[in-house]
Amino acid sequence: MKQTLSTGKRKTAIAKAVIKKGRGRVRINRTPLEIYGPELARLKIFEPLQLSGLHDKVDIDVTVKGGGVMGQAEAVRTAIGKVLIDYSNDKELRDMFYEYDRTLVKNDPRRKEPKKYGGRGARAKKQKSYR
């Protein structure tokens, strides 16, 4: 039985997706996609499945940790997109994903800038007045 693994990242969220031949079940942290989290996150996660047309032929299990709700949704989406490309071994699918939205194939490299001394955040500094 063919089985493929792939990962996706967004901010501090990391998702691992495993795909195998099946009946179209998608589970995120053992929760079926049909009842997963906010509706907006669910729709975002379903995009690569809908575009590929493989959603009724494969089972996908995703484990995601870290980050917030939407960061996790983006990481899951990337992991699913990458694993579908690896599983189908289809260059046209990869090109279609890339054209639709680059983050279905590539991780988003943006991260939070670290806090510096002399202020509350990465750029904000304590204000001073000379009057």
The gist of it:
This protein is α+β, with helices and mostly antiparallel strands and 131 residues long.
Order of helices and strands: EEEEHEHH
Helical stretch count? 3
Radius of gyration from CA coordinates: 18 Å
Q: What is the CA-CA span between the terminal residues? A: 75 Å
Average pLDDT confidence is: 92
Number of strands: 5
Low-pLDDT stretches are none
> Which strands sit side by side, in order, in the main sheet?
1-2-5-3-4
Work out the count of structural domains. 1
> What percent of the residues sit in helical stretches (DSSP H or I)?
25-40%
> What is the general shape?
elongated
Name the CATH architecture: 2-Layer Sandwich
Name of the level-1 CATH class: Alpha Beta
Measured by DSSP, the beta-strand proportion falls in 15-25%
In the CATH scheme, what's the topology name? Ribosomal Protein S5, domain 2
The computed structural class is alpha+beta
What would your notes on this structure say?
The protein has 131 residues and is of the alpha+beta class. The chain has a single domain, classed as Ribosomal Protein S5, domain 2, CATH 3.30.230. It is 34% helix and 23% strand. It contains three helices and five strands, in the order ββββαβαα. Strands 1-2-5-3-4 form a five-stranded mixed β-sheet. It is elongated and about 75 Å long.
